Amino acid sequence: LERKSKEELHRTLCQRCYIIKEYNIALKVSVSPEDYPKALEHIKDKEALIVLVVDLLDFPGSVWPNILDLLGKNKRIILVGNKVDLIVPDQKKYIRQITEVLRSEFMKKCFNSSEASYFPKLLSVLCVSAKTGFNMEVLIDKIFTSWRWN
Fold it and tell me: E strands, 6-138, where?
């Protein structure tokens, strides 16, 4: 990917998106509750940037219990609320309000003040729509900025 131009990167699709585009089929990716911790255990002791995507229509239910224990220390997190396009605007600054509630509820559910030194750093919280592309460029910019300052 490093050798590709900006335009080529813009056109590059992940495997799942390619299959959706070419075959109009969405692959169902599911991880059993037993396998989820196993899928994350290899990064527990590594420094990493985590892009944690949650379903706004199932929040806070879409945040795995003890997610911070599974992720481990030395993590930086970008918390992303997806499906903002499905939320009916009820006020002028509704996305800002949703983002603040997302941050607040995530902190309540996942942060224990007695573990302050353990808690990974929450770099950013934003709402996106993977379907419409809303705020996706902002998310990509945040990811690249976080990598650059790694």
Answer: 48-55, 75-82, 121-127
Q: What is the pTM of this model?
A: 0.74
E runs forming strands in 5-112: 48-55, 75-82
Confirm if 124 and 145 have CB atoms less than 8 A apart.
Answer: no
**CB neighbours (10 Å) of residue 137?**
11
- Which residues, in sequence order, are CB contacts of 131 under 8 Å at separation 6+? 83, 85
For residue 88, the 8-state DSSP code is: P
Cα(124)–Cα(146) distance, integer angstroms = 10
Q: What angle do CA 13, 57, 118 make, to 5 degrees?
A: 80
How many other CB atoms sit within 10 Å of the CB of residue 73?
A: 13
Task: Specify whether the CB–CB gap between 102 and 125 falls below 8 A.
Answer: yes
In tens, the pLDDT along 127-149 reads 999 999 999 999 999 998 887 66
Task: For residues 146 and 150, give the distance between their C-alpha atoms in angstroms, rounded to a whole number.
Answer: 6
The token pair at 113 is 């003040």
In the numeric block, which tokens belong to residue 46?
A: 């590594």
Instruction: Report the alpha-carbon distance of residue 116 to residue 135 in Å, rounded.
Output: 30
